[in-house]
Amino acid sequence: MGAYILRRLLLMIPTIVGIMGISFLVIQFAPGGPVEQVVAQLSGQGDSADQRLSGGGDLVAQGGADAGSSYRGAQGLDPELIKKLEKQFGFDKPPLTRFVEMMWNYIRFDFGESFFRNTSVIDLILEKMPVSISLGVWVLLLSYAISIPLGIRKAVKDGSTFDVWTSGIIVVGYAVPGFLFGILLIVLFAGGSFYNWFPLRGLTSDNFTQLVWWQKILDYFWHLTLPLTALLLSAFATTTLLTKNSFIDEIKKQYVVTARAKGLSEHRVLYGHVFRNAMLIVIAGIPGAFVSAFFTGSLMIENIFSLDGLGRLGYLSIINRDYPIVFATLYIFSLLGLVVSLVSDLIYTWIDPRIDFDRRDV
């Protein structure tokens, strides 16, 4: 097992370098980089440059000369200004040099500062993390709390009326996009056109600090009700069907027939023998499901319900071409995904010692 873990850890190095390298290469050909955006703003084609430059108040238009720059909209700006902008954003160096320096810093978990927010990237990520953690943890817990009992019940009642109509609900729920359902919830229950029962932004109320502890709990879940409902609509569908199919496969095996022949009750057979084997693939998938709910599932929901989390941070960073945040989040999420994949494999061996990933000579 030690050799297997070492191989997986070593494979993470070229994998993460490949992910970052391809993304970095794509960015080089993407129009509308940070320098171009500031140039457009200084030329009067965008918002105020003060909203973009961090500590860049000294970079002002200094004349009407042709900049001779390849940046669109740069005509009329001083060439020295363009050079200062390129140096400020780090674009005065060759792409390969910038990539090597970036990876060397990321290996040491030095993610630098945001281009436009005048703060460190890691501080921004830590600031937005509580919102994403709230959504990810509760979606994971609630989806598994619904999926596992429902999947077991569907396996036991396979082909019955209960199995048919619950499958219909699951398919419809999985097919409806979460963000579309979120908009429907806002229209119905958040002051859209009908009722105004739930708040529309944030995780807490403005007077949260003045509430007693039980009121804080109620206020917290009051704000989470609609976002969690929108995320849960399709979150439990895959796990439910996976649980059902896994139980059906195990129920058909010989050891279950033998257990029943010995006179064991159906409950004892189901939960004493089938459960551990059937739940192997479901339990081992928990780390991956958490990463999915934590980092990818809440992007649209955070924007719809004005929740300032990692999903919204990443989205705004891409729109604003804030590359330090974009690459830092990509690096962290990719690295975490690779580690979680390894942890999932190790959980397999912990649940069922018969599984061995070590290479064997045949």
Summarize the structure.
With 362 residues, the chain is mainly α. Helix content is 68%, strand content 0%.
What does this structure look like?
It is a multi-pass membrane protein. It comes from Allorhizobium taibaishanense. Its main location: membrane. It is found in: Cell membrane. Keywords: Cell membrane, Membrane, Transmembrane, Transmembrane helix, Transport. The chain starts with a helix and ends in an 11-residue tail after the last helix. Helix 5 packs across helix 12 and helix 12 runs antiparallel to helix 15. It has helices spanning 2-29, 34-42, 79-89, 95-107, 121-156, 161-175, 178-189, 213-251, 254-261, 266-278, 280-284, 286-296, 299-304, 310-320, 323-351. The radius of gyration is 26 Å and the shape is globular. The protein is mostly helical and 362 residues long. The chain has 2 domains: 32-110, no CATH class; 122-351, MetI-like (MetI-like fold), CATH 1.10.3720. Helices cover 68% and strands 0% of the residues. The protein contains 15 helices and no strands.
CATH architecture of the largest domain: Orthogonal Bundle
Quote the CATH topology of the largest domain. MetI-like fold
Number of helices: 15
The coarse overall form would be globular
Query: What's the mean pLDDT score?
Result: 78
Biggest β-sheet, characterized? none
Order of secondary-structure elements: HHHHHHHHHHHHHHH
User: What percentage of residues falls in helices of 4 or more residues?
Assistant: 55-70%
Name the CATH superfamily classification of the largest domain: MetI-like
User: What's the CATH class label of the largest domain?
Assistant: Mainly Alpha
Class inferred from helices and paired strands: mainly alpha
The fraction of residues assigned to DSSP E strands is: under 5%
Organism: Allorhizobium taibaishanense
GO cellular component, one term: plasma membrane
Pfam families: BPD_transp_1 (PF00528)
Protein name: Microcin ABC transporter permease
